[in-house]
Description:
The structure is a single chain. By secondary structure, the chain is α+β, with helices and mostly antiparallel strands. The protein folds into 3 domains: 2-128, Nuclear Transport Factor 2, Chain: A (Roll); 139-242, TolA/TonB C-terminal domain; 255-344, Fusion Protein Consisting Of Minor Coat Protein, Glycine Rich Linker, Tola, And A His Tag, Chain: A, Domain 2, CATH 3.30.1150.10. Helix content is 29%, strand content 29%. The protein has 9 helices and 20 strands. The strands form 6 sheets. It has a 6-stranded mixed beta sheet with strand order 2-1-6-5-4-3. α1 (2-34) runs antiparallel to α2 (38-44). The longest helix is centred in the N-terminal third of the chain and has 33 residues, at 2-34.
Amino acid sequence: xxxxxxxxxxxxxxxxxxxxxxxxxxxxxxxxxxxxxxxxxxxxxxxxxxxxxxxxxxxxxxxxxxxxxxxxxxxxxxxxxxxxxxxxxxxxxxxxxxxxxxxxxxxxxxxxxxxxxxxxxxxxxxxxxxxxxxxxxxxxxxxxxxxxxxxxxxxxxxxxxxxxxxxxxxxxxxxxxxxxxxxxxxxxxxxxxxxxxxxxxxxxxxxxxxxxxxxxxxxxxxxxxxxxxxxxxxxxxxxxxxxxxxxxxxxxxxxxxxxxxxxxxxxxxxxxxxxxxxxxxxxxxxxxxxxxxxxxxxxxxxxxxxxxxxxxxxxxxxxxxxxxxxxxxxxxxxxxxxxxxxxxxx
Length: 346
């Protein structure tokens, strides 16, 4: 037994020592990148080095933005310049143990090693062509005034919790800030009986002030995902989120649209009818749900435009749309949103 304990202690000690060594290599790598010290970077890495979903703002650096881009020694100088121009910052603590640093305004960056303790990959989370900036959670939280993951339930939600004998509640929060600084918050709970907590979380989030994120000097829609709950002890045990459709703001879904146009005009007969009205303007609202592949599956009218032919045309055109998958916590999910169309005659 003593021999077994000694062996376990030796293995744990070796593992901790290796982790410390790799942490030092990460720090040396980050320092070398920011100093544009290509020679040191080359000595710390194995080639070809993989760059996975690392986002770049500059057009000249876009060649390194892909699902898995192989960076060879001949490309290393340009690659290091692209990283240094956005700056790499080490993280001493992050919610995800695979994230060791951030790039630019807050893109998460993981630094992976091979068995020889050489850096083999730099990994991030920005799908090629994606519009929302996916920000590392602790970095996003630093832009939020009074941010907290402990969000108290409303009286209605608390009554439901008491009736069910539940000790706590938890939700997944997709928190975004648009270019104008407006908050976009969507919460999801696993238990349909506690759905009111989704609104509790959204209400709390809309009370926060969030500083917008910029890329290449331009403010853009930026998002991060959190597990929130109440009381704080409820955050210690994660629960599986519901598999039902997630309600999202149209601002989050629109950047993912890859086919179809939102500009849908009435037919000539309907235009003639609209021209006879005083306002010469119509408004219609619709509910759109898309599946995990980004394919529209459910379209319905929530507020008719007043012209059935126009409503039918809008739904036919919406059915032709296509989106990139909407991803929550690394998995594609079904989503629904509300979309409003406004047609005005000049």
